[in-house]
Specification:
This protein is an all-alpha fold. It has helices spanning 13-24, 30-43, 48-55, 59-72, 91-103, 114-121, 125-135, 153-165. Among the domains are: 13-78, Orthogonal Bundle (Arc Repressor Mutant, subunit A), CATH 1.10.10; 91-135. Helix content is 53%, strand content 0%. The longest helix is centred in the first third of the chain and has 14 residues, at 30-43. The N and C termini lie far apart (91 Å).
């Protein structure tokens, strides 16, 4: 004999269908599946103790998710924002960083580096590196062929082609293989 529940959970057909789909899903997060099971079992009339024992959670956990579902509905099962330090740079600053890196070239050099982008935008280099990784930006890689800025580039290419086209000879005069 436990505490009597103040409110019973009654589900609409849409809520029941949504919770059942979540429980059957193989790609849904485990926590969301467990919360959906708690709500479905509670709507079936099981006690909090039975639900906790069946799902391997604590009774206060069952009470928490029942109350959250009663207060907020299905949206309450998805959790809320986690605590922590707020972001230092808003979406406009991140968009400006990405536009600058993807649309322009630095004054000195052929491509943006993390430190160069950091100096140009005022965002710390570790944060720039995190944004590059998050958005998959690799400014050092280009899709096309880049011509060298070396003034002697053409002569070097010609010398290289000559070396490839002329077979090397050994002392006896036969071709190297």
């Amino acid at each position: 004999m436990g505490r009597p529940r103040d409110w019973e959970i009654t589900l609409t057909e849409i809520e029941r269908q949504s919770l059942t789909e979540c429980v059957r899903s193989r790609s849904a997060p485990h926590g969301l599946v467990r919360r959906s099971r708690i709500v479905l079992a509670s709507a079936s009339g099981h006690s909090n103790t039975e639900i906790a024992r069946e799902l391997g959670v604590s009774v206060p956990c069952v009470c928490l998710w029942r109350n959250r579902f009663l207060a907020q509905g299905l949206v309450g099962l998805y959790g809320e924002q986690r605590p922590g330090r707020p972001r230092s740079h808003d979406d406009e600053a991140v968009a400006a960083l990405l536009n600058r890196v993807l649309q322009s070239r630095p004054a000195s050099g052929t491509h943006w580096t993390v430190r160069g982008a950091s100096a140009a935008t005022g965002i710390p280099k570790s944060t720039v590196q995190r944004y590059f990784r998050l958005f998959g930006v690799q400014p050092h890689r280009t899709r096309g062929f880049k011509l060298s800025n070396d003034p002697l580039f053409v002569e070097k290419v010609r010398d290289h082609r000559r070396a490839i086209s002329q077979p090397a000879r050994t002392r006896r005069g036969s071709l190297c293989r």
